[in-house]
């Protein structure tokens, strides 16, 4: 069973983060320039939230408007779902589907060690299935 640890080994454990006091405008620019859909919000190295484009749009729609000069800490998701390195991809997929989230920070002993996205999970799941299919085809062909 493939775990988050396997995905991080392949994709790397680099993460992008911002301070909760950063203006929303700057956080959006950082996401755009790095082609990512979310940023971890760290305060003194501790995970305190997640700022995702999808969540930003939801808050903006619910409140009518959000100033781009507002602080990330005012609009971030504070109740952050996270996983550990030994979490399986099936567990990630179930959590992401059930809670309608696209990004899961990876924590080990309360320290951020990476992040996985729905794209990472789907990509690895497809690669795993293709590997199994190849093995079955070789077995059936007697190779």
The CATH class turns out to be: Alpha Beta
Biggest β-sheet strands, sense, barrel: 3 strands, mixed
In CATH terms, what is the fold-level topology? CBS-domain
CATH superfamily: CBS-domain
> Share of helix among residues?
40-55%
- Judging from the principal axes of the Cα atoms, what is the shape? elongated
How many independent structural domains?
A: 1
Q: Order of strands in the sheet with the most strands? A: 1-2-3
Fraction of residues in β-strands: 15-25%
User: Would you tell me the structural class of the helices and strands?
Assistant: alpha+beta
Q: What is the first-to-last residue Cα distance?
A: 24 Å
How would you portray this structure in words?
Helix content is 48%, strand content 20%. The chain has 6 helices and 5 strands; from the N terminus they run αβαββαααββα. It has helices at residues 4-11, 24-34, 53-63, 72-75, 89-99, 118-141; strands at 17-18, 38-43, 46-52, 103-108, 111-117. The strands form 2 sheets. It has a 3-stranded mixed beta sheet. A hairpin with a 2-residue loop joins strand 2 and strand 3. The radius of gyration is 18 Å and the shape is elongated. The mean pLDDT is 91.
Q: Summarize this, please?
A:
This protein has 143 residues and is α+β, with helices and mostly antiparallel strands. It has helices at 4-11, 24-34, 53-63, 72-75, 89-99, 118-141, and strands spanning 17-18, 38-43, 46-52, 103-108, 111-117.
